[in-house]
Amino acid sequence: MDLSRAAAEALDAADPLAGFRARFAGADETGPDRLLYLDGNSLGRMPLATPAAVTRVVEQEWARGLVGSWSQWIGAATRLGDELGAGVLGAGPGQVLVGDSTTVNLYKLLAAGAAARPDRDVLVCTADDFPTDRYVVAGVAEARGMTVREIDADIDEGLDLAVLAAALDERVAVVVLSLVAYRSGALADVAEVTRLVHEAGALLLWDLSHAVGAVPVDLDATGADLAVGCTYKYLNGGPGAPAFLYVRRDLQEELRSPIQGWFGQRDQFEMGPAYEPAEGIERFGVGTPPVIGMAAVEVGAGLVAEAEIGALAAKGRTMTDLLVALGDEWLVPAGVALASPREAARRGSHVTFAHPQAWQLTQALVDRGVVPDFRTPDRVRLGPAPLYTRFVDVWDAMDRFRAILADRSYEAFPAERARVT
Amino acid sequence: MDLSRAAAEALDAADPLAGFRARFAGADETGPDRLLYLDGNSLGRMPLATPAAVTRVVEQEWARGLVGSWSQWIGAATRLGDELGAGVLGAGPGQVLVGDSTTVNLYKLLAAGAAARPDRDVLVCTADDFPTDRYVVAGVAEARGMTVREIDADIDEGLDLAVLAAALDERVAVVVLSLVAYRSGALADVAEVTRLVHEAGALLLWDLSHAVGAVPVDLDATGADLAVGCTYKYLNGGPGAPAFLYVRRDLQEELRSPIQGWFGQRDQFEMGPAYEPAEGIERFGVGTPPVIGMAAVEVGAGLVAEAEIGALAAKGRTMTDLLVALGDEWLVPAGVALASPREAARRGSHVTFAHPQAWQLTQALVDRGVVPDFRTPDRVRLGPAPLYTRFVDVWDAMDRFRAILADRSYEAFPAERARVT
Fold it and tell me: What is the domain class of A5-47+308-412 according to CATH?
């Protein structure tokens, strides 16, 4: 791989997705001191079309339409769900619902899945999964008197299929896994994982938060059972945007949400005496859906769908290859270690580096206009977003990274993190 | 009560809250054909300051601040909770959290309360409470092997204290009640209800959805245990706006959310191996809070706080007195019956009328530019919002109502409701 800046410029010149950059706030800036935002996997940039979409809901639908606008809003959670299904999740209609947070959705589907396998008493997750996933698994297990098998996953290389296989037996009700690991970016082997979990007769619940918009997610084709995910990362839905959930159509009837809300009720406006779950994916609805937030999700997810996930994933692989190669060349000699899979096919769209002073390095990078993410215990995570990040952005960010290592300026920053509460 | 239009005009001229009307979209219109919006208890009008507040979050904090804005957002759910506490809930700081839907919050607090009383196996609610409340109670009871005592409440007059008392004993863990009944507007006797429930050793969980912003809610002063409520009705937070929850400070440590999310975790960004609930009200957080939606809630709730709940409730009582008196004069002779408490002190800010063809009447009213709410089985609910509804709006709406009854034009509308799905 040619590691010159000119080579990065050439990649940008040939980038079929280059036109999307101008459709995001701040992504099109040039100049040597520009902000290099490599944290789109934490909070994606704002699409320029978003303010108008939000304003339309607020100033037209709400302010003028008032309650009359419920004729549109009432179907929004499933309509947008179908759009996500078709555009970014590989899911046919009637299987995706938008609303609530990723955590609430995970709770709903995990509790529903566990209840649907009453003869099984074990939940499986990985010891290095995103905290909220592990906490939800622990909570559901405790409430239901189940046992958690928290399996080891190499925090850099991801899930070992043999380790997963060893944890699976006829006691396992549901397996919760992230398709792309939040720390390392390791991408699970979907076909093999699905085969193993289904062979054991368990349900597979994917957390797609760090995958959707970065790698192909073919829920229907891969035989997924259940999935949840976040829309404010690569889908650019905005801070705290409503999340989504997926339940394969033939599983819907046997699963019931533990939270029996009026938006999951059949004949909702009959307001009948007893809860009876709606027939389709609507049964996983709970309360009034976040109408304003959904308008922003629609814009963000629409751009990803328009770009097409194949093109995004291909660019993501090349970008992360560039990160790995520049890391080998510039960072490793300065004491930094790659903490992500080396093989592009085994990664999502982010790459993580380890260094004992990662927290100080993170602060120094931010100070030099590079936005990464610190991850415990000693990781700097770099997440270029194929939709709007340039190859020269990646190159320049790594150039600043090596400069900080060279001049040791990072040592001037606090070694201890302040409590964020 | 003088029932002339001139008298209504005089009430408007003397209204100390009249200045607030100009701060809401569409509320200041005049003219005989203007829209008469009496559904602010379903979806409040848009404050004119809201678009700028939302735009600030979207175009400044998100688009420019990117992840750096989390320094502000991270405390928003408790900061806004404290504002609601001080401004509209009568709750001291550290007891109110904003986020999730009313239903999710109800589920969290009910499950937490039930788990905190493991020696008790009964949940109490009323047979006429809002559907989502009853459904959540049924779901939590089923999951925990508890029994529901669904007590009769007169659907027009509200809760009979003797009936409540008869349902209370040492088996009752939690009582769920709406402070203002969604159908009739009946206002519960807070002091007596609290005394009865606490005498039985049970926890009291208020649903404040139809009360907050309409009547004084002095949570701390009345010794409330738990409460949840909606922000898109009288608080004018917008469609699907994030809800709130309240847990009295001295109860917080013994209650645990059934949904163990990373936003309820102590030292959240340590991302530690085991869930350990945060110390204060934050432990009832779940996922990433809806940042954009909270900005709109802050504006809407801020206006209610500025107007002061005493003034709003006083105007609400006079407005609903006018509705009742005009109903007696104009509607009752045409076969309509009052379906709300007659005494102002026993009502929230809405009044409901019963008629066998209520659905047709509702459609006819909408057709004549009056927006009420149909409620099952045969009710027309009229909800003037003291913050922006004029007395002449109430008078004119009732005038159109009597005209529809007189010319029987409502009979031209479909008798059967179409399914909304």
Answer: alpha beta
